[in-house]
Design brief:
Blueprint: H1 3-7, H2 12-21, E1 28-30, E2 34-36, H3 38-44, E3 64-65, H4 68-73, E4 78-79, E5 85-86, E6 88-90, E7 93-95, E8 100-104, E9 121-125, H5 126-132, H6 138-157
Antiparallel strand pairs: 1-2, 3-7, 4-5, 6-7, 8-9
Length: 162
Amino acid sequence: MSKPRLDTLYDTSEIRDIWEKNQTVPCIKDPKEGLITPNTYRANKNSKPCPYCGKKMVHGRKYSTKSKTEARRRGYEYKRVDGKLDINQAGLLYFHQNYVTIDHKLNKARFPEKMFDYDNLEAICWRCNNQKSDNLMFELEHKLEHLKSLKESVFKRYPNPH
């Protein structure tokens, strides 16, 4: 896909189609590996911690199923922030809550020219990606919560002697 073509696309369904059709095309320029596919990018992040929740991300067929009942049995169902139960689904498959997804720091519908830019991509677990949604402040909010938590633990461990 040429950049001039991407610069003119802002329709969500077209952007989604382009993204989906290129999952097995070497279109991401990894600084270490050269051109890789989005699927390879995800596979490379298997067993790495999610940068937001810290849980180990998973990748591969053994972390998906076509059966909703089987997905529940395996523990893929989880509570969203709003308290509702959810199971990650794409097409006919249900996925583990910590399955590796590729997040676009700058939304691909708003910045289609950055859709495959390595510096605009981040591997995060599916659950955090759903929670983040289109919130560009998610990373800053998460860091602030983390810093508050660190501060509280330091003050508990080392109380003020005065």
